[in-house]
Amino acid sequence: MSDLVGDARTWSPDAQEAVRLLAVSALVEGRDRSEVAALFKVSVRAVDNWWARWQAGGRDALLSRPRGRRAGEHQVLSEAEQAAVRQAVLDHIPCDLGLSGQLWTRGLIGELIFKLYRVRFTEPGVGKYLRRWGLTFQRPDKRAVEQDPQAVRTWCEETWPAIRARAKAEGAEILFGDQVGIRSDQVTGRTWGAKGATPVVRRTGNRFSVNAMSAISTKGRMHFMVFTGTFDAKVMCRFLARLAGHFDRKVHLIVDRHSAHRSKTVRTWLADHKDQVELHFLPSYSPELNPDELVNADLKGSLPHTHRARNQNELAAETRRFFHRRQRQPHIVRGYFGGQHVRYILDKVNPISF
Description:
5-stranded mixed beta sheet, 5 strands, elongated
């Protein structure tokens, strides 16, 4: 519409399209081209151009079209080549493909493109492709190389549904449990400081720690035990006994494969209390499948920032306060089950129907 004059240059594409159609309609009715140009405040050249387009292509030739390149037009890489690079980024880490490192950057993706197709891209150029492919820069989850993906799938698709069905049939309770250690020299949270000068947090040089065992349910229940000794089979049996005492029905407790959980002492205790507690083990090297791991992270992130424990008793008291507080906040406990990797636990029909 470069032939428009006056205010017509600022018209929307729809308005300009309407002018073209009306102008040609006036020409068809027999009006003079100069008269039409004056009527619609455009140049005679514009009117001649529209008439020629109408004669060559009819009404469709006068319709507005999106400006600029169409999506994918004049791309250096073909659609098939782009799809191959995208899939390589999603399925592999750089060192799998002969590059350095384990995390993809725009520079490394550019190196991959050059290695495959001998085409050089700047990092901003690679970024344009990444956005077009729907990829974003993210912090990756960590997984142990020893983890068996098939065991994880079996747990999520077969083992866990079977446990849930049994518990429902028995009218039993399902809990997920885990243990955690808290050290006195652990610094949680962040603070403000001068740029380039890391703030200093004063703490006692006398290191000490406490441990805790907890168990949670999708109903928002939380049970815990704080202790100062090492976590072993005897401590596990003590926790199981306390857990059984809280329920008038059987408990199915799901834990990791810690040696204390699988010890002879614990197996003997379970055999003597098989109508009260049954233990189930998550796949090896799969802590992300246990929602109680999120409790542990919450605990470490919630320790007081203004007051540091000066001895083991104070640290134990702070830890107990955290668990007591969460026991009064069942909505937060239920929220642990909304984590990305533990959503498999929730029943799609009734998420908290155990």
